[in-house]
């Protein structure tokens, strides 16, 4: 790894109706939002906490490891982070007080595995990988997923931390279920939403390894205080994650119901197959949501992140505030503010 001197670079990119302010925080003085694209290996992941996750993935990638191992190791960092209250252990519970986790993983051969509404198991992504590798199925849910995890050596543990229990008890006082936009981006949340209630967040990660193979992983505790049994887009192959080793991969974050309705990540990959750049493909997927549900689109966040077979990446979100982290040979701590977003309130 090269020197970790940090700098902040801001560039204004003019783009007619779109807000186009790119902010990059990087260890590389020469990097910019565009430079370094097209390199391999590379790993990208959603939100600021992607930086720490990318580091773990990078350790695998820089040692010529497989993208599949990289994404599993990477997102496990977010799953283990108790301060992260929307992924893995420490996640917010549903409205009945259960922490239920969703995750999926997909490799370069089109193999995939998934778990949904999994309770008491700290690393759902690793269970999802075992579903892929050790069963004839793609998806296990609820009790069945837990039984499978226990049979395969995972330990049962309490995932509800004191902090998340406290937040849930606070929420019970009003029982107001309204997703807050960009709650994952702490700077944005602190500035724009003082006293906010964290209520949604996911890590989606895509990696291209030195051999040119792609894999992806996605893991979350889903919407905070959701109905018991609710499953979002994150564990659903094609919605929260999709990888086609000939073309590229995509993942999503935000209000999962809208992503499921449009089969968002599959759509992004198929658009890249048609020649769209990663960013344009993400934009088209976001606009599909806007076209179908303009009223809902005003009040929610959905962000897509995509990486193509050439190592080029891009994102597009419904609202301002989406960020993602990038790590390759040139930049290891990069956080990019999603450059482009649709802002329904302004149109
Ligand atoms: C879900 N998509 O469960 C997830 C939540 C999320 O940023 O991504 N929040 O719907």
UniProtKB/TrEMBL annotation:
The lineage of its organism: Bacteria, Pseudomonadati, Bacteroidota, Sphingobacteriia, Sphingobacteriales. This is N(4)-(Beta-N-acetylglucosaminyl)-L-asparaginase. Coiled coil: none annotated. Keywords: Signal. Residues 1-24 form the signal peptide. The keyword ATP-binding does not apply. It comes from the Bacteria. PANTHER family: L-ASPARAGINASE (PTHR10188), N(4)-(BETA-N-ACETYLGLUCOSAMINYL)-L-ASPARAGINASE (PTHR10188:SF6). InterPro entries: Ntn_hydrolases_N (IPR029055), Peptidase_T2 (IPR000246), TAT_signal (IPR006311). PROSITE patterns: PROKAR_LIPOPROTEIN, TAT.
């Amino acid at each position: 790894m090269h020197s970790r001197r940090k700098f902040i670079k801001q560039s204004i990119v003019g783009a007619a109706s779109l807000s186009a302010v790119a902010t990059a925080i990087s260890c590389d003085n020469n990097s910019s939002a565009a430079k370094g694209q097209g390199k391999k290996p590379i790993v990208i992941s959603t939100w600021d906490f992607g930086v720490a996750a990318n580091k773990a993935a990078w350790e695998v990638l820089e040692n010529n490891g497989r993208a599949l191992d990289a994404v599993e190791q990477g997102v496990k960092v977010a799953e283990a982070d108790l301060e992260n209250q929307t992924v893995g252990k420490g996640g917010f519970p549903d409205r009945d007080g259960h922490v239920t986790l969703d995750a999926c993983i997909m490799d370069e051969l089109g193999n995939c595995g998934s778990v949904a509404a999994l309770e008491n198991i700290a690393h759902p992504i690793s269970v999802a990988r075992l579903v892929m590798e050790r069963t004839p199925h793609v998806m296990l849910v609820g009790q069945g997923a837990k039984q499978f995890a226990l049979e395969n050596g995972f330990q049962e543990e309490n995932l509800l931390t004191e902090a998340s229990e406290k937040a849930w008890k606070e929420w019970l006082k009003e029982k107001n279920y309204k997703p807050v936009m960009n709650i994952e981006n702490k700077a944005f949340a602190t500035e724009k939403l003082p006293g906010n209630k964290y209520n949604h967040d996911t890590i989606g990660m895509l990696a291209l390894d030195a051999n040119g193979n792609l894999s992806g992983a996605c893991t979350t505790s889903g919407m905070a205080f959701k109905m018991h049994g609710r499953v979002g887009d994150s564990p659903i192959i094609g919605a929260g994650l999709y990888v086609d080793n000939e073309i590229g991969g995509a993942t999503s974050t935000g209000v999962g119901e809208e992503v499921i309705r449009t089969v968002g990540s599959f759509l992004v990959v198929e658009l890249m197959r048609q020649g769209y750049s990663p960013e344009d493909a993400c934009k088209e997927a976001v606009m599909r949501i806007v076209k179908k549900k303009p009223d809902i689109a005003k009040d929610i966040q959905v962000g897509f992140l995509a990486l193509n077979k050439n190592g080029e990446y891009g994102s597009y979100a419904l609202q301002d505030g989406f960020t993602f982290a990038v790590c390759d040979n040139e930049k290891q701590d990069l956080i990019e503010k999603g450059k482009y977003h649709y802002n329904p309130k302004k149109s």
